[in-house]
Design goal:
The protein is mainly β. It contains no helices and 11 strands. The protein has a 3-stranded antiparallel beta sheet with strand order 1-6-5, with no helix packed on it.
């Protein structure tokens, strides 16, 4: 298992006819020792399989928690201009300059996180 028994987590979303109903539902795990549901977030607890369900079994998904190590590739992008009513350019001509930085992680399994 993981050194500190911490596995990845993910955010649940319940879409009904393209409407986000996540906040109006509750979720549960058939085996909280494998994956625990906290609000609308699923947290892996140990290697295994379980089912995550929306209230009343209206929707369910089977998940697998494993102990594979996924190394992310961090990709940083510096915003050099913004559009809209408060548009402005950023100029970086010193290491002391401050600006906007957007970073996301790409994992070898195809997951991305911002």
């Amino acid at each position: 298992g993981c050194a500190n028994d911490t596995y990845q987590s993910t955010q649940l979303r319940l879409l009904v006819d393209d409407l986000d109903m996540t906040g109006l539902s509750s979720f549960s795990s058939s085996d909280p020792t494998v994956a625990e549901v906290i609000g609308s977030r699923v947290v892996g607890r140990q290697v295994g399989q379980t089912q995550i369900s929306a209230y009343g079994q209206t929707a369910a998904v089977n998940i697998t928690v494993n102990d594979d190590i996924l190394m992310p590739e961090l990709v940083a992008r510096i915003v050099t201009s913004l559009s809209g009513p408060n548009a402005r350019d950023q100029t970086f001509d010193s290491e002391d300059d401050i600006g906007y930085l957007h970073t996301y992680a790409m994992y070898t399994n195809g997951d991305t996180h911002s």
